[in-house]
């Protein structure tokens, strides 16, 4: 990200160094070849990253499921209760039931 501030004939450029870490999605059930502890293993790994105070959390939830039961939102709220560093994102808007409105989920 670049931030340019100008005025009075000068220009200041601030470059923010960010690292993006794509973590696996939270899971509930082990599939063939995975250890039975996979759900707990993944949650523990995710926590090691999102508990860091300099981490920005992107909590992604499918719009076709009840956001109140979102594991991603629940976990983010546990480590960022003030929601100062959490962004929520809805996916799969195309799979929502006919007649439903995504704005109802976020308002």
Described by its quaternary structure, the protein is single chain
Order of helices and strands: EEHEHEH
Straight-line distance between termini: 29 Å
Low-confidence stretches: none
How would you characterize this protein structure?
The protein has one domain. The chain is 25% helix and 22% strand. The protein is built from three helices and four strands; from the N terminus they run E-E-H-E-H-E-H. It has a two-stranded antiparallel sheet. Strands 3-4 form a two-stranded parallel ribbon. Strand 1 and strand 2 form a beta hairpin. The protein is extended and about 60 Å long. The two termini are 29 Å apart. The mean pLDDT is 85.
Task: Give a quick precis of the structure.
With 107 residues, the protein is of the alpha+beta class. It has helices at 38-50, 71-79, 102-106, and strands at residues 2-7, 10-15, 57-62, 86-91. It has one domain.
Strand and helix map with partners:
Blueprint: E1 2-7, E2 10-15, H1 38-50, E3 57-62, H2 71-79, E4 86-91, H3 102-106
Parallel strand pairs: 3-4
Antiparallel strand pairs: 1-2
List keywords for this structure.
107 residues; two-stranded parallel sheet; alpha+beta; two-stranded antiparallel ribbon; 3 helices
């Amino acid at each position: 990200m670049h931030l340019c501030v100008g005025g009075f004939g000068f220009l200041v450029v601030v470059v923010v160094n960010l690292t993006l870490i794509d973590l696996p999605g939270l899971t509930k059930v082990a599939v063939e070849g995975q250890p039975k502890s996979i759900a707990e293993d993944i949650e523990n790994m995710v926590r090691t990253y999102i508990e860091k105070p300099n981490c920005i959390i992107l909590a992604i939830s499918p719009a076709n499921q009840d956001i109140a039961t979102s594991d991603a939102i629940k976990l983010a709220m546990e480590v960022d209760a003030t929601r100062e560093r959490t962004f929520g994102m809805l996916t799969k808007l195309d799979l929502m039931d006919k007649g439903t409105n995504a704005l109802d989920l976020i308002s």
